[in-house]
Amino acid sequence: MDFFTLITQLAEGFVLTVEIFLLTLLFSLPLGMIVAFGRMSKNTIIRGIAKAYISIMRGTPLMLQIIVVYFAPYYVFELQMGRGYRFPAVIIAFVINYAAYFAEIYRSGIESMPVGQYEAAEILGYSKAQTFFKIILPQVIKRVLPSITNETITLVKDTSMAFTISVAEMFTIAQEISAGSTSIMPLMVAGVFYYIFNLIVATVMEYLEKRFAYYR
Predict the structure, then answer these.
(1) Stated pTM of the model
(2) 125 φψ region: left (φ > 0), alpha (ψ -120 to 50), beta (else)
(3) What residues have CB less than 8 Å from 162, skipping those under 6 apart?
(4) pLDDT of res. 1
């Protein structure tokens, strides 16, 4: 296989890798906030459910979670989902996994805020919602961005886990080409793709951190 054909095939898989990455962030970031609220809830039952969810998601391998999400409809509900369910299953597994990590990041940021800011906002007549979204949340985002950046970079590499249920993202394609050509070159080229992608992500996150620097 010539180098141009290799790049073309890996690029096709890279598109799917980017889709997994973007969809995971799109749904896991807001879901993580919801779970964080549940984790900090005064309701014992809600707090317990959120805590158990986070514990399970962080305590079991992502690969296992992908397998469970994909096969559970059949083995638990006897539903035939078909091959078209593979990609949605990957997205669901990634979202519920990363939401647990983001929830703990959000929680640490929210709980680190001084109580005095809530009290001052109350004196000024702000409602709880206004206090959170206008005063607390912008500062929390600034504080947790480095941790979110680390998780985001990890997500780029974790997209390769989609091979577990034969979703043909870039790493899966690189493995197949490498096995067929008995060459390590496809995997090395895939590694370059991942590195460039991570470099772009890190640059974007660094830019966001600078934009929020006025909260220092």
Answers:
(1) 0.88
(2) left
(3) 16, 20, 66, 90, 169, 171, 172
(4) 62
Q: Please, which residues have CB within 8 angstroms of residue 68's CB and are 6 or more apart in sequence?
A: 93
Across the range 40-60, mean pLDDT stands at: 94
Cα-trace Rg, the chain? 21
| Tens-digit pLDDT profile for residues 107-131 | 998 888 888 877 788 887 878 888 8
Residue carrying structure tokens 């620097």: 213
Among candidate residues 67, 60, 64, the one with its CA nearest the CA of residue 85: 67
What torsion, rounded to 10 degrees, do the Cα atoms 182, 184, 187, 193 define? -130
The tally of domains found in the chain comes to 1
The stretch 182-201 carries a mean pLDDT of 89
Buried-state track 14-47, b at ≥16 Cβ within 10 A, e below 16: bebbeebbebbbebbbebbbebbbbbeeeeeeee
Residue 86 pLDDT greater than 70, yes or no: yes
**Rounded-to-integer distance, Cα 73 and Cα 11, Å:** 32
CA gap 49, 46 in Å, rounded: 5
Q: Are 89 and 68 in contact (CB under 8 A)?
A: no
Range of the domain at 205: 3-215
d(CA 138, CA 134): 7
**CATH number, position 208:** 1.10.3720.10
Could you tell me if 186 and 174 are in contact, meaning their C-beta atoms sit under 8 angstroms apart?
yes
Q: What is the pLDDT of residue 94?
A: 97
**And the tokens for 94?**
């990634």
